[in-house]
Amino acid sequence: MNSALEDLLAVLRFPSISTSSENAADVRNCAEWIAAKLTGMGLSAAIHQTVKHPVVVAKSKPQPGKPTVLIYGHYDVQPVDPLDQWQTPPFQPDIRDGRIFARGATDNKGQFMSHLCGVEQTLAEHGELPLNVIFLIEGEEEIGSPNLAPFLREHRSELACDIIAISDTGMVAPGVPTFTYGLRGIACLEVHVHGPTIDLHSGIFGGSVGNPNTMLAKLVAAVHDAHGRIQIPGFYNAVRDVHEWEKEAWTKLPGEAETLRLTGVPALWGEAGYSDLECRWARPTAEVNGIGGGYQGEGSKTVIPRSAFAKFSFRLVPDQDPDDIIKNVQTFFAKMAPDCVRVEIKPGHSGPPYSMDPHSVYGKAAQRALRATFDREPALIREGGSIPIVQSFNDILGSDTLLLGLALPDCQMHAPNENFTISNYEAGIRLNRRLLQELAM
Fold first, then answer.
1. pLDDT tens across 171-221, in order?
2. Cα–Cα distance for residue pair 98/107, rounded to 1 Å
3. 374: burial class by Cβ within 10 Å (0-12, 13-18, 19+)?
4. N or C: where does the chain have the smaller number of CB atoms within 10 Å of the terminal CB?
5. pTM above threshold 0.85
6. 3-state secondary structure of 94
7. Known catalytic residues?
């Protein structure tokens, strides 16, 4: 087993679950391992304690006059539940059929370790790097990076860079190099519908007292029309259509048939007039992520529940503002709610959408690196997911981000049996080495 693979297996053994207070020491130990590794490579590394979990920053030997790339990654991982669905223990990495199975294998330890090992191999071979490199590896991405933006502001001068590189996104298909130049933003909230002060007998009071479950169902149903278009006033005011070159490029990529295969749904559903990829990458959405109210146990319990709730996430596209969307949603539900119930809105986390010009100087450099690594033309895509810190990088450091994903569609991120192919890990190392050269030109 080569040293790069051994290093990845080592870092995967840390149960660095950022949302769990029980794993705080594991998160810290993982940060210390990474800092020690970077120091051993010849970089100057430091651990910065935030209000919650540490940030690791490392720098190569300064080379005045050369450009600087900041490489971002995160060493924290999602919880492992449901544990009984894992074929092997999530923090005992197991290699099967050319894949590494472990929590964090793809998201994001395998991907950022590709960059780290690429820098290590370049230093070992040449004794120096072709440009200045800064590593910033955080431990709170899976809980929304609450302390990273303040950290960026506090350390703005020492993190100054020309471009940022992140591998925390996906590939459209195995072997297809993928450059993501846009991400959807997000705005989350909960809708609570309150009715009677206690659960009521549905026979005695049914027909006279409004049922919060029923009223919530009406509110949820009112969000979309029959054609999948969101009915919240002002929701689409800032939305812009995709460019014609994007539409043309996306027609050459796996679309509806692949989505059906991956998801197992009998048919797709979405905003009428847009393709599968446009709906997932370039159109805003409103999704109910959780819903509940009343009796949930076995058999019947005939009550009118005192309350019901729904958890919403809205995925946003340029130039939608999360704060504006939440205000519009609050106004919409307040207006739609019947007077027999009281509606309470609880805003959750949010983050803005991100986009860059893939045809910029650094964008073209990234495409050259992808092309050379995979020996085929890269796919230029947007992604439907959100990485809110990417726009924060742009706002605070003033730099664009190159999103060079190595995750395959079936890597099972955030799910049991998360995995990362060894071939993609090795390709990521080669990609990093080539990227350093291209960005230095």
1. 999 999 999 999 999 999 999 999 999 999 999 999 999 999 999 999 999
2. 17
3. middle
4. N
5. yes
6. strand
7. 76, 141
Q: Would you give the DSSP letter of residue 105?
A: I
Question: How many Å apart are CA 301 and CA 47, to the nearest integer?
Answer: 55
**Which residues are registered as beta bridge partners of 421?**
99
Name the residue type at position 8.
L
* pLDDT of 303 over the 70 cut: yes
Could you check whether the bond before residue 419 is cis, i.e. omega within 30 degrees of 0? Answer: no
Rounded to an integer, what distance in angstroms lies between the CA atom of residue 285 and that of residue 316?
7
- pLDDT band of residue 1 (cuts 50, 70, 90) is low
Read off the pLDDT band of 4 (50, 70, 90).
Answer: very high
Determine contact, residues 100/420, Cβ cutoff 8 Å: yes
pLDDT, tens digit, 9 for 90 and up, residues 161-182: 999 999 999 999 999 999 999 9
How many of the other CB atoms lie within 10 Å of CB of 114? 27
- Residues 8/75, Cβ–Cβ less than 8 Å: no
Q: Sign of dihedral through CA atoms 228, 234, 235, 241?
A: positive
Query: Which range of residues forms the domain containing residue 373?
Result: 3-183+353-440
User: Of all helices (H) and strands (E), which one includes residue 247?
Assistant: helix 244-250
Average pLDDT, the chain: 96
**CATH number for the domain including 116?**
3.40.630.10
What pLDDT was estimated at residue 197? 97
Q: Which residue, 344, 375, 372, 370, is CA-closest to 358? A: 370
Residues 173 and 206 in one domain: no
**Amino acid type, 315:** R
What pLDDT was estimated at residue 262? 83
304: tokens are 């009118």
Instruction: Please count the CA atoms within 13 angstroms of the CA of 205 that sit on its side-chain side.
Output: 15
How many structural domains comprise the chain? 2
Q: How confident is the model at residue 140 (pLDDT cuts 50, 70, 90)?
A: very high
CA 109 from centroid of its chain's CA atoms: 14
Cα distance between residue 186 and residue 329, in whole Å = 13
Task: Say whether both 28 and 70 belong to one domain.
Answer: yes
- For 307, the 3-state DSSP assignment is strand
- Token code pair at residue 309: 């709730």
Same domain, 84 and 216: no
Helix (H/G/I), strand (E/B), else coil: 311: strand
DSSP letter assigned to residue 224: B
Residues 21, 156 within the same domain: yes
Report pLDDT for 263.
86
For the sheet with 185-194, list strands across it: 285-293, 307-316, 185-194, 342-351
